[in-house]
Every structure is written in C-alpha cells, then in structure tokens.
Structure to design on (280 residues):
C-alpha cells in the first residue's frame, strides 16, 4: 500500500527511532547520476541510491533502458543501504518522486513491508527548514532478505493485447505520446490503444494530489476497480510513480517495465501517433 510521509513526520521519526532508513534516489532523465547533489546536501543519514546501477540492470536495447534488477543484486544493494528486517524505509528524490517511486515499488514488491515516500521530496524538506547534511553516508551493512516479485509484470506481448482487455496507460508527456518529439528512443509515438495520462497530472508542486482527485484522473482514463490496467513510460521508471498514485486512489495498477524503450527497439511492433489511443 502506498504511504506518504511529511517532512515533519520524518523528522520526528529520525529523532525518536533507530530503525528508520532514508534513501536518497535523486535521478532525472537529463541528470541520471544524482551523487554530486547528494554529497552537496541531503537529509541526515540518507544513503544515496543509484537508480541506473542498483534499481536497474544493464541489458540489450530490446530489453529497454532500465530493465528490472536481478533479485540477488537488489538484495546486495539493499544491504549496502543498511536495510534490516522490520526497518521503516523512507525514499525521496527532487523530481516529482520518480526515482523514489521506483525504489518504493521494487522494495514493496520484494517483501519490505514499511516503505514510505516523502511527499514533496527534498524540496519540501528544505522548505520546512529542517537540517541538511553534506558528504557521503556509509551505514553498517544490513541483512535484509528480499523475496521474489510479489506480482507479475507485463511482457511486451501482454502490453500489446491489454488495450483490448482493459486499460494501458502511457504516462509520458503528451508530445511524446502523440509522436511529435522523441528525445531518447529510436521511434516516436505510442503503443496502439494506450491512453495518455501524463505523470505531471498526479502532482501539484511535487506533492501528490489527494485520493479523490487521483481517482477522478484515473477514472477519466478508464481505470476503475475490476478493470485490468497497467502503466508504461519511457523506460519503466516513471510508471512506478503512476502505480504509487493509483494506490493512493485505492486502485490496482501493474507495470510494463520494458515500456516505450523496449517497444520502439523491437522490430515489427506497430506504432501509433496522434492524440487518440488508436493513432491518427
């Protein structure tokens, strides 16, 4: 279940408990390595998490840009972050909770029961006037034991047929969905039948909208209880934010992790363009 935490609530946890682990997952498309920003200032005790190498694995172009990591590799990374059984984990970033949502999704789906997302991210922490520290954080290694993914993710073939059985959300920017621009992947457009619901719609000034507003957004896109639904983005990272928003709204949403980067690198896959799900 998606859980938000405010800066004040996190500050209280850090001052009153010793089993709270904070993960700094700063990442953006134009600056994937957030380590320098982490070193310059972060929430006290926060460990830097590298989305490219720890929350993803390297693969072939047809695997997509951010394939899910192997379980053993994710567990090794989580132990490096200091995670132990029973810990409360708080994740944050400074870009609409995109990287943080990827960490939240991976950890909650591999058996970590208490993972919370800092609403508003690092910007909200600083705006609250709370303490910031510099330098690297190297905690004592943890001993957390992760479990295999608790829910299936969509394959490329399953993503192809989902629009005929339910709802496939494309959460990229509208201009990428319409095929007017494609800054990274080899082909512009969207998966035929996918409905555009941009990730920016879920948040206001980096904070998530309330549950009622989120339910309305998803309902307008056709997502409702009992309807099979999944999300994709450019490479599977931003889709995790959509899942978090859906859970805040009380809805179930799966992920197609290969996303557009896999689809557009796979010969023979149809491409739709324009504002309509089926294409122009």
């Amino acid at each position: 279940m998606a859980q938000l935490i405010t800066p004040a609530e996190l500050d209280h946890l850090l001052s009153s408990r010793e089993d709270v682990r904070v993960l700094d997952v700063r990442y953006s498309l134009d600056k994937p390595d957030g380590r320098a920003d982490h070193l310059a200032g972060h929430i006290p005790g926060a460990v830097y998490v590298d989305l490219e190498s720890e929350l993803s694995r390297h693969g072939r172009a047809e695997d997509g840009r951010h394939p899910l990591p192997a379980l053993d590799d994710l567990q090794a990374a989580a132990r490096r972050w200091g995670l132990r059984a029973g810990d409360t984990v708080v994740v944050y970033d400074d870009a609409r909770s995109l990287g943080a949502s990827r960490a939240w999704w991976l950890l909650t789906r591999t058996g970590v029961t208490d993972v919370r997302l800092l609403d508003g991210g690092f910007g909200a922490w600083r705006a609250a006037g709370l303490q910031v520290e510099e330098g690297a954080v190297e905690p004592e290694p943890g001993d957390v034991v992760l479990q295999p993914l608790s829910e299936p993710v969509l394959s490329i073939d399953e993503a192809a047929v989902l629009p005929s059985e339910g709802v496939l959300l494309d959460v990229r920017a509208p201009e990428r969905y319409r095929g007017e621009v494609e800054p990274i992947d080899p082909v512009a457009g969207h998966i035929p039948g996918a409905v555009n619901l941009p990730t920016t719609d879920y948040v206001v000034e980096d904070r998530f909208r309330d549950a009622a507003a989120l339910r309305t957004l998803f309902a307008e896109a056709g997502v409702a209880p009992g309807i099979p639904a999944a999300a994709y983005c450019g490479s599977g990272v931003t889709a995790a934010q959509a899942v978090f928003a859906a859970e805040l709204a009380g809805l179930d949403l799966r992920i197609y992790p290969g996303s557009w980067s896999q689809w557009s690198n796979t010969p023979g896959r149809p491409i739709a363009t324009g504002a309509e799900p089926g294409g122009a």
